[in-house]
Write a structure and sequence with these properties.
A: 4 helices; elongated; B: 4 domains; 6-stranded antiparallel β-sheet; disordered N terminus
Chain lengths: 150, 611
């Protein structure tokens, strides 16, 4: 697999699963798995983590919209495996936790669930970030104020 | 061991004498034109027999001034001198600006009136002109007289700015600092911050022998408004080494080393103790992790607005020492024993055919030392066992007794149940314990502090100060579910037998579960689980509620019911109790009241129809 193919695969996988997770959470809300306050809290926790990655990915896709020829080098299999596996593990972890809470399993209350989400993100976000940012140029998400002088 | 009665009397006597002497020459003919009443009080004409709490500005009495940022217009139309009295509970920095409207030169002096001799305070003049003075003061805790003088009568404007409590900040993680008592207040203040609920023990070392009459030296904690924090433990009044323990919620506090003279700050400005370096130590600092139920209780207090009146402090579980702060049994067992003893007496009296009086004397209570051995608690054998409490919950009270009484009255009038009874019900629901087995300790200044279910309602019990007050306090607005009542006719029914039958008919659902906490002939508490969309008609949330039903009175008999409900979201099966984190009190108050009425109407019909 070439670097460009991996970029598209990993990028589209992350964007699709991020959107899928948000839609899944909203569906659970419609089914009364969460109340409004809980839904906004869950959204507020999971959205920022992925927003950083997806902004870089979307910027890459836009930048390379007209580039049809793949001239990039082939990447080795451990890199491919980790680049794809870590985001999948993170997403699976979050989706499972969200589903379990909506069905009132495992977690004692919403506070426990919230802590678990934050812990899961902390555990995996840095690894996922390392691979994603090694593939895609780091971008500041639109609308986020930075300290850099303008 | 702390002696609450003695300390209470001493401070009460100080309170009633603390308005300070009026200068003989202080012929008052000035008025505060724009003086606003304190936010919590309406002014009323006091009865002659009552103690006047605040000076009213009549002749020979200084006007009362509240030190808070703002502007005061003072009418000095028939005099050239005006005295204003103010008290500071914390060392405070303040800027006072005084000016006259039509150019009469004005002068201003601040005198500490609680010292002997009275001491003129030195401020830093910030700006001065013939008709305007501006002075920055840093004032110790004391009573003060502010004298305004003009060369001719007229209107004077007093502006109070930059009011801020002032004390050096200490880090509790660093144990030990030296204090020097301030000669005016006979105290030394330090400010500190608490980031999470913690148990903190302060102690004083190198405490001087204060002589025959000047005997007391204590360490106390005050909140940011100058109100005393609720003390958990302290040592004997006369012990040389002083300590005091507190459970403190997150916030800013002041720790104060207090030297007192026969109970109140010594008026003498020169004594050896003022040159003594006293050690202030943090002997213990550990987090206090309150049970989740008490976090839920704090949330409920906040949601209903009751947190303006009371704040959770400590839970003592007499069934399980592991839930308690160490030493909790020794400190609080005697209070629980008091309640058990009184209840036993009352029950025995009710069953007795002969005349019997309930002994309100605290002296007859069992001695805590007899029953507490380390972490184990052994209640005395006998009938007192039936009345022993399971839980004691301590609250700090944020308001004075007038405000508390007014709130209690307004609450009962609006909701048909006493504030404390509703609180006991809530705790009972959260802890799955009958309200009858819970004692609440809510120390109210000069008023009863011990709350328990006595008969069909709960009120504060304990000694009160015999004094009047010239203020009618406004009460707190609260949003809780009301109780509902209905007149009951027909022959006398036993609720403990009838209610289970009625509830099964009323819900007609095998998934509904009933957990009875109390089943007396005229009082039943039951937690009902397994409901969805019952109380909130058409709602999707799971519901769980505590239903308290009682029959009171003789003729007519009243049937009364209170519902305390909680909600949980979720898909699938009925969730565990821990998932019920939302109270119905605020958002669904109307639904709960409607449901309570439906339930009590059904129950009344059922009871009246029963053979």
């Amino acid at each position: 697999m070439t670097e460009q193919s991996l970029k598209y695969t990993a990028g589209l996988l992350l964007i699709a699963s991020h959107l899928g997770l948000l839609i899944y959470t909203i569906i659970l809300f419609f089914q009364n798995g969460f109340n409004m306050e809980e839904l906004t809290t869950v959204m507020a926790i999971i959205t920022p983590v992925f927003a950083g990655y997806t902004t870089s990915i979307v910027a890459f896709i836009i930048k390379n919209a007209k580039s049809g020829v793949d001239t990039t080098q082939i990447v080795n299999w451990p890199y491919i495996v980790l680049t794809l596996t870590l985001p999948i593990i993170l997403l699976t972890l979050l989706a499972t936790a969200i589903s379990l809470k909506a069905h009132n399993h495992v977690f004692q209350n919403f506070e426990d669930f919230k802590r678990f989400l934050l812990l899961g993100e902390s555990l995996f976000a840095s690894y996922v970030g390392m691979f994603i940012y090694s593939l895609f140029e780091k971008q500041a998400p639109q609308g986020i104020v930075t300290n850099e002088p303008r | 061991m702390f002696q609450p009665t003695l300390k209470f009397l001493l401070v009460c006597s100080f309170l009633f004498c603390s308005t300070g002497p009026t200068p003989a020459h202080a012929k008052q003919a000035c008025q505060l034109i724009t003086q606003k009443t304190a936010p919590e009080y309406k002014r009323v004409q006091p009865k002659k027999s009552q103690f006047r709490f605040e000076p009213s500005g009549e002749e020979n009495a200084p006007l009362h001034l509240e030190i808070k940022n703002g502007k005061q217009e003072i009418n000095m139309s028939s005099a050239t001198t005006c005295f204003l009295h103010f008290s500071l509970r914390l060392p405070t920095s303040v800027t006072l600006k005084v000016s006259a409207s039509d150019d009469p030169p004005v002068d201003m002096t601040v005198t500490a009136s609680s010292t002997e001799p009275k001491l003129a305070m030195q401020g830093t003049p910030a700006r001065s002109s013939p008709n305007r003075m501006e002075v920055d003061y840093t004032l110790p805790r004391a009573d003060y007289l502010l004298k305004l003088a003009a060369t001719r009568p007229g209107k004077v404007t007093l502006v109070i700015e930059n009011v801020a409590p002032q004390a050096p900040v200490i880090d509790l993680a660093v144990s030990g600092t030296e204090l020097m008592l301030d000669p005016i207040s006979r105290s030394a203040f330090r400010k500190f911050y608490i980031n999470r609920r913690s148990v903190v023990t302060f102690s004083l070392s190198n405490v001087p022998d204060m002589g025959k009459f000047v005997r007391a030296m204590s360490v106390n904690v005050l909140d940011i408004d100058g109100n005393p924090a609720l003390e958990t433990d302290s040592n004997e009044y006369d012990d040389v080494r002083k300590f005091a323990t507190y459970i403190l919620a997150p916030g800013a506090y002041f720790v104060v080393a207090d030297g007192t003279y026969n109970g109140w700050p010594s008026p003498l400005l020169q004594e050896p103790i003022l040159s003594r370096r006293i050690g202030l130590h943090v002997d213990a600092l550990s987090p206090y992790v309150a049970p989740a139920s008490m976090d839920a209780l704090s949330h409920w207090l906040h949601a209903t607005g009751l947190d303006g009146l009371i704040q959770f402090n400590e839970l003592v579980d007499f069934r399980n020492a592991r839930r308690n702060v160490p030493d909790a049994y020794r400190r609080l067992f005697s209070l629980a024993a008091d309640v058990a003893y009184r209840r036993t007496q009352k029950r025995t009296c009710a069953q007795s055919a002969s005349d019997c009086e309930v002994d309100d004397d605290f002296l007859h209570r069992p001695d805590a030392k007899s029953f507490v051995d380390g972490a184990d608690l052994a209640w005395p054998a006998g009938s007192i066992l039936e009345d022993r409490p399971a839980l004691l919950v301590k609250f700090s009270v944020k308001k004075d007794r007038n405000f508390v009484r007014a709130t209690e009255a307004a609450f009962e009038k609006e909701h048909g149940v006493s504030l404390w009874h509703r609180l006991l019900q809530k705790i009972g629901h959260l802890e799955t314990v009958s309200a009858k087995r819970i004692v609440v300790l809510a120390p109210v200044w000069c008023d009863g502090s011990l709350v328990y279910l006595d008969g069909d309602s709960a009120y504060r019990h304990g000694p009160i100060c015999l004094s009047g007050s010239s203020a009618v306090p406004l009460s707190l607005d609260t949003s809780v579910n009301s109780s509902v009542s209905a007149t009951l006719s027909g022959k006398r029914r036993n609720l403990s037998d009838s209610l289970p039958v009625f509830l099964k008919q009323f819900f007609n659902n095998n998934d509904v579960r009933y957990d009875y906490l109390a089943q007396d002939p005229d009082y039943v508490e039951v937690i009902i689980r397994g409901l969805r969309g019952q109380i909130i008609s058409g709602g999707k949330d799971w519901e769980k509620f505590l239903l308290t039903v009682s029959i009171t009175g003789a003729d007519p008999r009243m049937l009364r019911a209170t519902v305390d409900g909680q909600l949980a979201s979720g898909i699938g099966t009925y969730p565990a109790d821990t998932q019920f984190t939302r109270d119905m009190d605020t958002q669904f108050k109307g639904n709960v009241n409607e449901y309570s009425k439906k339930l009590i109407v059904g129950l009344r019909k059922f009871l009246e129809r029963s053979p």
